[in-house]
Structures are given as C-alpha cells and as structure tokens.
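Dear colleague,

Thank you for sharing your sequence with our group. We've completed the structure prediction you requested, and as agreed, I am returning the results in plain text so they can be pasted directly into your records. Please verify that the sequence below matches your submission; if there's any discrepancy, let me know and we will rerun it promptly.
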Amino acid sequence: MDHRQRSRRTMSTSFLRPRGRWQMAQKWHHVLFAHWPISAEALRVVIPSALEIDTFEGQAWLGITAFRLTGARPRGLPPLPGISSFPELNVRTYVRLGKRSGVWFLSLDASGLLAVAVARRLYHLPYFRARMKMHVRGGNIEYESHRRDGTAPPAEFRADYRPGGPVFRAQPGTLEHFLTERYCLFAAGDRQLFRADIAHRPWPLQRAEAKFDLNTMAEAHELALPDVAPHLLYGKRVDVKVWALQPCGRDA
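Please find the predicted structure tokens below.
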C-alpha cells in the first residue's frame, strides 16, 4: 500500500475514503440512535422502488436520531456564527443500490433556517423547519422538537436520554455496526436517484437509556412503531465530511 492509499484509509477500517474533495464539513454531538424493528413491507411505500430495503438478519429497522450539529461549513470557508450550529432530528432507514448500502432519510428536522434551505437545494433532502431545544445537564440530554413547516405533516418529539456503560466500537457483522456505520446517503430529485458519500471515524458508541414523552415522527409518515423497547445507542461526537451528490448508476 503506497502513501496515497494509506492517506485515503483514514476514517475507518471498514471504509475507504472517497476520491475527490469533500463539499461540506460538520460535527455531530450527543447523538441518540433510537431504532425500532419494522416490516420491510411497511417501509416499501415510502422508499423509491429502485432502492432495495437493507435488513439485518432479515429485519428492517426505522431509526430516529437526535443530536446537535456544529461547525457546519462548505469547503474553504469557516463556520458562520449563528447559523452553523443547531439541533437536528432525523427519521431514517437503510437501503441498498447495487454494491452500496446507505441511509435513506424520511425526514430531517432542524432549527437552522439557512441550513434547511441549503440542504434542500444541494442534497435534495427532506429538511423541515422546527422549533427545537436541546439541553445537556450533567450526563443527561433533554431534547424537544416541534415541526413548524407547512410543507410537511406535523411531527413532535420530546425525550430525555443519557449514555451508560463503557465506550466501544461496533464490530462488522453486528447489529450496532449495521445501524450506525453508514458511509453514504441516497436522495431523490428531478426523477433521478443520487448518492453522497460520507466519511468519519468509527463511532465511539455507548449503550443508552431514554424516556420518550412524545414521539410522532414515524406517524407523520403513516408508519406505526411497534410496542417494543427500542434499540438505544449513544455517540458523544464525530467529525464528518460530506461529498457532493452524484447521480446513481445501477451499480451505485
């Protein structure tokens, strides 16, 4: 392996850094990964037919991720005060196209108005404006989101969560790796599927505890969460690079 190959394999032992230059940089803090098992048939109606629903041992999953995003900036520019840091709340699942597996976002709620507009335009992602609060008090995170966007159904989320247990790295072949170590996203726009590559170091994960006082995020997509305890993980921070969207070929 020459020095160029070594420099590209900088983010993860299971991920080869994409070629070319990244487009956006950001940091994700105090991330809650909450996942529920869900039927692939229920997801099929909200996923483009060209994408295969990715499953772990035959089971599909719906995730809600809550976190604070900071340091958002395009390549070559510094973060802009007042608009580069905000809470974000995602509803996501996992898909495949050809040889590539990645994330499909059903919705992304954010309190940063400019970020919502830029992400919609650059990445064809379903971002929506929301009134959001996130407070870190000791080891506990209090999180609240109320969607305030007339282009989408109402959706609300209120939860307290906290990490517990030692930090670990998810190993390939485990459910934790399947749910968190995702290095591309898919999006649809102008009758075309796109893919954007993502790079970050492996997540420093911990088991998590959470209390959900209000959660209609899945209901906004006419999806019903099962009456079971969710799979919960916490990640304190990762630094992320996002590449530009590229049209998908059949081999992705």
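Summary note from our side: The helical segments are 3-8, 40-44, 113-123, 175-180.

Kind regards,
the structure core
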